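We emphasize that the prediction below concerns an isolated chain of 111 residues; any contacts that depend on oligomerization or on bound cofactors are therefore not represented. The input was used exactly as deposited, without trimming of termini.
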Amino acid sequence: MEFFRKNIELEYRPRLYLSDGLDEKDLSRLKRNISKGKGSCAVILISENENDQFDIVTPFQLKLPVWKDKKPVVAGIAGKKDDAPALVEQIITDCLTERGDLNLKEYICSL
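Result of the prediction step, given as a token string:
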């Protein structure tokens, strides 16, 4: 039995939230590293748990067996794990501004 997965399949939302210091030109490199389970960034996933909005994980954590047979949906990428809460805060602020509610999963999926 293989403990760490070699290939990580992810679905990326068309409009990703990126933390300060990251931009569109960094995306292909980041995605490549994340799919290999490498890098020090934080990946913000839409949680499959109905009681949670997001999961914040490192690329390495995506290699763990808990993600086997799942295709997580990426809502954002933070340059480092410490930047992830501010990025989630930005998603919340944008959702409140644009929709007037906190249906975050619905908001992310509408972008």
